[in-house]
TrEMBL record:
Positions of region (Disordered): 221-306
Protein name: Protein kinase domain-containing protein
InterPro entries in UniProt: At4g25390-like, Kinase-like_dom_sf, Prot_kinase_dom, Ser-Thr/Tyr_kinase_cat_dom, Ser/Thr_kinase_AS
Species, as recorded: Flemingia macrophylla
One Pfam family, short name: Pkinase
Biased composition (Basic and acidic residues): 244-259
PANTHER family documented for this protein: OS07G0586332 PROTEIN, RECEPTOR-LIKE SERINE_THREONINE-KINASE PLANT
Domain of life according to the entry: Eukaryota
Amino acid sequence: MGMGRGEGEGEGEGEGVNKEKSGGIGWGCSVLILMLLCLRKRKRTTPSSDPPHPYPYSVLRRATNSFSTRLGQGGFGPVFSGVLQGHPVAVKLMDSASLQGEREFHNELLFASRLHRSPLLVPPIGFSSDPKRRRFLLVYPLMPNGNLHDALLRRRIPHLTPWNNRFAIILDVARALRYLHSLHPPVIHSDVKPSNVLLDHSFSAKLADFGLARFKTHHDAAPLPHPDSESDAASDFDTQSQHSLDDAKGDYEEAREGVVEGGEAWQQEEEKKKKKKKKNKVDVENEEEEEEEEDEEEASVYGKRSVDSRLSGELRRARWNSYDSGKSGGVSSNPSTRGTVFYVAPEYGYSGEVSEKCDVYSFGVLLLVIVSGRRPLQMTVSEFQRANLVAWARQCGRRGKLLEVVDESVECLDKGQATLCVTVALMCLLKSSSRRPSMKEVLRMLTGEIPTPQLPLHNSHSPFKSRNRPT
């Protein structure tokens, strides 16, 4: 009996253990299923780890409060501020009628995954794509202090009055371009200008807007492709950059008209030089004098037009393209497929010949703008000799008066650094791309790692002194 009772108790205990095990397994399965459901839901609502993240249009509309706070306007479309997942953002909403805006949208996505790790750059962190409704949106982190164009040339904020703060921005942009050019393959930004330089909370400068950027190829002139399938572009943008680089050439053929005046001037300069070299075997000094005459003509043409307000249609468009309308929240776009007039290298503007040296030229113009606190074409300058910033800086270089270029409102000026900056800018602006320094060399000169070579210009009188001007 006792033995029987023990066996019964053992069986009862075994059944209890089995029930506990089965209950535990059931509970564990329930937890696992719940976790899988939560994870699945999270994947639907939470973007992947690496930007740019896809977002539904409705999410971005709510984030911007139905696009209520407008920051600015560019060629791509309007820019709005918002809050996304607790972070302030700037959202570009493409103009539905803009074909170039769609190209820029795809182009930004092509580069976003490759550039998001650099603190020197501001690629998009998110996007929304609906080709059927032509809704294309790009999301960027909002830069608290806007862009350099607005801060330096519009609001003229006090923070940019001390020389050290301007010089720090110059170095930041130089480092950003050096980084892009050091990638494999190198990335050519193609639209370096103040409105594409963003300022964070501490006024550190970051380079933005990769709508016109491209990878350097063996041909050096092939733009990035326009996707064959709009619907596939947003999901497959990471693989698009390696396909059909040459096929997109036709998309940019119209750009030959984009900077006609600068390009034709460059072509005429090259033809003049070739003819004179064949005819007279012009020596180096005569070439320099010829450049003086060309700069005089250039300054005269742009200057007179600015004074008389007789800008051609192309220059008038360039003026609006260069000065983005509205307050800038740190993001802007421009309509030209080859950058912005006055910042575009002559060989790029006319023939489409593209290399890192095109960015170097644009950086030279930007450098003069930061140092002088003036636009490349100053419409309000009474003396037309000084209206064209680049031509005027070249003449100051020839006269050995580089500090005349410096903004008079700058405080605590380091004359040595200022002279260095203008010198480096003029080297970046040499008309022959092969004579311009690389961005690596530019940065090393600015930081004093290597000496700055003497400018290939001699000190001579200003050509304006001998010009007969009407009284």
